[in-house]
């Protein structure tokens, strides 16, 4: 059999990798981002709880840069990642004292909800984006440069639609102190009392922030990456180029969408506190959002691109070996 008659053993797409490989790359990126960024928000919440202790029924939004999680305090400051023992004099002091008193593992005490919710959402989002961008570039012809903008928006709509019911159910479970064994009853109760549409409560405000953010992020990221590659006279982006492009595009998108973030956070808090008791809430600030989102975007996209490059090279090597 001649070399030209040997079929490609790896069914790759136009990006040179399979959708499953894209999912693996995005999953690894989400895991690494969670590991790096979660301690920052754990410390921030502990500092916030120290200044204004969370009463029973208090609801706040925990965000590690990948995804927001609405949390309801059931027994005051009982959970490790937002209780406030001792006194912290600042971020660095909080890091040191938490590690000394409670062990280094406590810095990742907010990780479980991220692994349960954010990782699947991120896998769906990034994989859909790459598939949609490749398809749209072919169909949009002379307007192919705008494909990342549209693909980013559509991918975000899809991931938010899938995850919104899960987020609302989890909030209800927390506020009603329900276990995962009682999950079925929680869902039936919500549907029976408020209908199926109640599972997507908060979907609209979430889209108001996340869709514009996603569209701007991917458009600016692709533009920035292409410009840096051209400026450095290279064809393939390096880890540094993807990291810088992700951080800059994430910062720009987070600044522009900050008003929508305030609306979304208030809505999330209201949903959680309606399930428990009405208390005051805080709105996110400009600097905390940028500080958190920029590194999260940078770590996520650079790890994702590195993973795709790894699989692309692997596929090419398999193809060459099969043709020899």
From TrEMBL:
Its main location: mitochondrion. The chain crosses the membrane at residues 107-127. Solcar repeats lie at residues 17-135, 143-227, 237-310. One of its GO terms (cellular component) is mitochondrial inner membrane. GO terms for biological process: mitochondrial transmembrane transport. Gene3D superfamilies: Mitochondrial carrier domain. The keyword Membrane applies. It is a multi-pass membrane protein. InterPro entries: MCP, MCP_dom_sf, MCP_transmembrane, Mtm1-like. It is found in: Mitochondrion inner membrane. It catalyses: glutathione(in) = glutathione(out). Keywords: Membrane, Mitochondrion, Mitochondrion inner membrane, Repeat, Transmembrane, Transmembrane helix, Transport. PANTHER family: FI19922P1-RELATED (PTHR45760), MITOCHONDRIAL GLUTATHIONE TRANSPORTER SLC25A40-RELATED (PTHR45760:SF5). Belongs to the mitochondrial carrier (TC 2.A.29) family. This is Mitochondrial glutathione transporter SLC25A40.
């Amino acid at each position: 059999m001649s070399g030209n008659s040997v079929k490609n053993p790896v069914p790759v797409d136009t990006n040179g990798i399979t959708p499953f490989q894209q999912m693996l790359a995005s999953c690894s990126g989400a895991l690494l981002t969670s590991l790096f960024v979660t301690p920052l928000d754990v410390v921030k919440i502990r500092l916030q709880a120290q200044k204004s202790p969370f009463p029973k029924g208090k609801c706040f939004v925990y965000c590690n840069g990948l995804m927001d999680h609405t949390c309801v305090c059931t027994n005051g400051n009982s959970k490790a990642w937002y209780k406030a023992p001792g006194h912290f004099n600042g971020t660095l002091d909080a890091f040191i004292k938490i590690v000394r008193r409670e062990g280094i593992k406590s810095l990742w005490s907010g990780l479980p909800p991220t692994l349960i919710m954010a990782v699947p959402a991120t896998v769906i989002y990034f994989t859909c984006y790459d598939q949609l961008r490749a398809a749209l570039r072919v169909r949009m012809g002379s307007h192919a440069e705008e494909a990342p903008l549209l693909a980013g928006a559509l991918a975000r709509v899809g991931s938010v639609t899938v995850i919104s019911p899960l987020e609302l159910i989890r909030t209800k479970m927390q506020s009603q102190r329900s276990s995962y064994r009682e999950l079925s009853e929680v869902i039936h109760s919500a549907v029976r009392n408020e209908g199926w549409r109640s599972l997507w409560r908060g979907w609209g405000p979430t889209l108001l922030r996340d869709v514009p953010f996603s569209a701007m992020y991917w458009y600016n990221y692709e533009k920035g990456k292409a410009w840096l590659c051209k400026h450095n006279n290279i064809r393939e982006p390096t880890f540094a180029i993807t990291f810088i492009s992700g951080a800059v595009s994430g910062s720009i998108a987070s600044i522009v969408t900050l008003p929508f973030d305030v609306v979304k956070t208030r809505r999330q808090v209201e949903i959680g506190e309606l399930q428990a008791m009405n208390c005051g809430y805080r709105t996110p600030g400009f600097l905390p959002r940028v500080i958190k989102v920029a590194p999260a975007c940078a770590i996520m996209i650079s790890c994702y691109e590195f993973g795709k490059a790894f699989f692309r090279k692997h596929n090419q090597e398999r193809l060459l070996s099969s043709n020899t």
